[in-house]
Amino acid sequence: MLWMLVRYSLLISLMGLSGLAFGEQVGVDGARMWNGPEYTRFVVDLAGPIEHKVFALENPHRLVVDLIDARLESDLPAPAGDDRVVAGLRSGVRAGDDLRIVLDLKQPVRAKSFELAPNKEYGHRLVIDLSPRARTASAQQALPAERPARRDLVIAVDAGHGGKDPGAVGPNGTREKDITLAIARKLATRIDDHPGMRAVLVRNDDRFIRLRQRIAIARKHRADLFVSIHADAFHDRRVRGSSVFTLSAGGATSEAARWLAERENRADLIGGVDLKQRDDLLASVLIEMSQNATIELSSIAAAKVLAKLQRLGEVHQQRIQQAGFAVLKSPDIPSMLVETAFISNPDEEKRLRDTNYQNELAAAILEGIVEYFGEYPPPGTRFAKSPPSALSKAAMASAQRYRIQSGDTLSEIARNHNVNLSVLRDLNQLQGDQIRSGQVLIIPGS
């Protein structure tokens, strides 16, 4: 009897350590996907340890992941359009208590699954790597003829502070967290309206999100750029103007050390390389190379944005500033922090509350972002496509924007505006003639 009691107590203790009550289903907090050149990685975030089964089905090709005694608590991600193996994801309840996730595949795959223990940033995770099986000779010949799908650029827009953290407070009680959210929303709307770009709002309401989690959200959505919006404050209320920050060398060094120290417990990747599989020297070199490239691109993007803000009004610093802000420390996403104005200055506080000025700030930031990606487009994105040479500068100077209405077709829009359909398609970086209501098209002038 004593042995049974000890065993029962030990069982309860172990369950308490894992954060699960007796008999409770394991929560599936979400999932992430990374599309690499050799394989696709599918990561399932879990509330605790789990039993799982993975098997493949044919006609059509599918990979089935059964999670025993589990429940889904958030939506599954959509695979990237250029993912070579995964076409879609779906889920359902099986046998009453089990969760089944089905990955619809574009081709047969080899799958390898393993679990990862919690670390400082992530909890329990199930990782599944999917790599294509050997192609047939005919498939190899057809591969060069395939036209690679071009994806939208993803911009992570981070509204600073939020929830229990109000940020700075102006002389008239204006809270920084409210201003940053208003500007972030306006910037996200403008990004979504621009062809070839898509925004991800790190927060879209008044909630508190830890700084490291903000980076994680951007990486989850595979962002090409991270822009954090703030409103500065100073004890001298006369100080005013905008500033733009990137990560300092000291901040980069400390972050590299952190990545190196935690690599044994991380499934995160730098440039597609898993640090867990590398020795200290090689891992540190890989981190440094990735960070140097990221910091350089961050500085270029930040300079473009600062130049546009200078046209809008007074800037506090004429050059890009560098600091060790934690929110800028993603080693593989170019990142900047925009101090839109000094909320501690009564005049600038008033301007920050003005909707028109918020729109002007959003427009200036977007203009800098577009200029940056026009010069440094990531491969595989719609911005990487050369602009149509048939358009003259005069046609572009007189271009207008048209918001698509319900029932519109691309051919009708081209005909109504007396524009060649192929030119309209190329200018807006469309892969076909599919358009959506609310989408904004650029229409060249005559």
Number of strands: 19
What class, by secondary structure content? alpha/beta
Give the low-pLDDT segments: 1-22, 136-140, 259-275, 386-390
Largest beta-sheet characterization: 6 strands, mixed
Order of helices and strands: HEEEEEEEEEHEHEHEEHEEHEEHHHEHHE
What integer value in Å does the Rg equal? 25 Å
CATH class of the largest domain: Alpha Beta
Assigned CATH superfamily of the largest domain: Zn-dependent exopeptidases
Order of the strands making up the biggest sheet = 11-10-12-17-13-16
First CA to last CA: what distance?
91 Å
What's the number of domains? Answer: 3
The level of helicity is: 25-40%
DSSP helical segment count? 11
Using the alpha-carbon principal axes, give the shape.
globular
Oligomer: single chain
**CATH fold description of the largest domain:** Aminopeptidase
Q: Report the CATH architecture of the largest domain.
A: 3-Layer(aba) Sandwich
Catalytic activity: Hydrolyzes the link between N-acetylmuramoyl residues and L-amino acid residues in certain cell-wall glycopeptides
EC number: 3.5.1.28
Main location: periplasm
Protein name: N-acetylmuramoyl-L-alanine amidase AmiC
